[in-house]
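Is this the right way to post structure tokens for a design question? Let me know if I should format differently. Anyway, here goes:
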């Protein structure tokens, strides 16, 4: 791995953490929806990496990335659904449960 790539990764992780930590609680649901969309893009990229068949390491890392991105998407949608159910009124939630 190139030193520049490592620097870009560390900088992106730091900036991402700083941006997410400053989001007010009111905006968490729209942010989760955007995060799920980004996870979908990473899933496509990980599928490409897993199917590239360059060598065994790329295939194994791609497979791990597919599992991580898939679990991130499923978990994100479950959390978003749970958060949205909290904002429904009593009559709306009874209709959904039937």
């Amino acid at each position: 791995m190139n030193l520049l790539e490592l620097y870009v990764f560390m900088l992106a992780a730091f900036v991402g953490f700083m941006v997410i930590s400053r989001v007010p609680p009111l905006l968490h649901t729209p942010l989760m929806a955007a995060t799920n969309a980004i996870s979908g893009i990473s899933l496509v990229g990980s599928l490409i990496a897993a199917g590239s068949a360059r060598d065994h390491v790329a295939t194994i890392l791609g497979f791990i990335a597919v599992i991580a991105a898939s679990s991130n998407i499923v978990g994100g949608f479950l959390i978003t659904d749970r958060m949205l159910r909290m904002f429904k009124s009593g009559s709306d939630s009874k209709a959904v449960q039937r």
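Format looks fine. Someone answered above. Worth noting: Residues 30-89 form one domain. The chain is about 85% helix and 0% strand.
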